[in-house]
Amino acid sequence: MKLDPFYLIVDRASWLPRLLPQGVKLVQLRAKDMETDELRREIAEAKAVCARYGAQLVVNDYWQLAIDAGCDFVHLGQEDLAEADVPAIRRAGMRLGVSTHDEAELDTALAVQPDYVALGPVYPTILKAMKWAPQGLERVAGWKKQVGDLPLVGIGGVNLDRARGVLDAGADSISVVTDVLLNPHPEARARAFVELTRDYV
Fold it and tell me: Catalytic one among 18, 30, 40, 191?
């Protein structure tokens, strides 16, 4: 499987009609602090908008709701992976991405035969408190050697200036949150990432 080299993460489906027209083809819905019914609506809305623009939707964490909604890709952190019914995810025909931060977590991820692994944080990140120090580009290169043909996503502190370095170090895709969502001009920033990563498609 090949991932698009630009992997956008949004916290609300309402971002998608603004950002998908910029050429974004791979997007994760990472919705937090919502009631179940609201989450169902968010996932359904995101799925519909992604279908309209020919983009791949990845649902973060809520694998059961994703199955119910007919989605085909889910991303799990390590804690969620430990509690998830991976056979049920696979029976539903879903692809699976898994977060990793150290060697033990990489072993755990590889044991479930994921469709990609994410390594982070590559750089310091303002999005959430991390108990892991920034991994750096050498770690990205080392992770890629270990996972081989399995797609590797670099996440954490990736901005437009750092994007090419992360991809050149071995990441197949860069995951971006704040550099787009907190930008004064999110549409233009998303478009700039799409244009920069075209060299890696």
Answer: 30
User: How many CA atoms lie less than 13 Å away from 71 in the CB half-sphere?
Assistant: 34
128 is annotated as an active-site residue: yes
Q: Is the pTM of this model over 0.90?
A: yes
- The amino acid at 168: D
Q: Which two tokens stand for residue 57?
A: 């939707």
Euclidean distance between CA atoms 124 and 32, whole angstroms = 21
Give the DSSP letter string of 1-38. ----SEEEEESSGGGHHHHGGGT--EEEE---S--HHH
Considering the candidates 2, 12, 40, 99, report the single residue annotated as catalytic. 99
Give strand pairing partners of 96: 74
With tokens 């990432």, the residue in question is 193
pLDDT tens, 6-38?
999 999 999 999 999 999 999 999 999 999 999
Strand partners, 173: 153
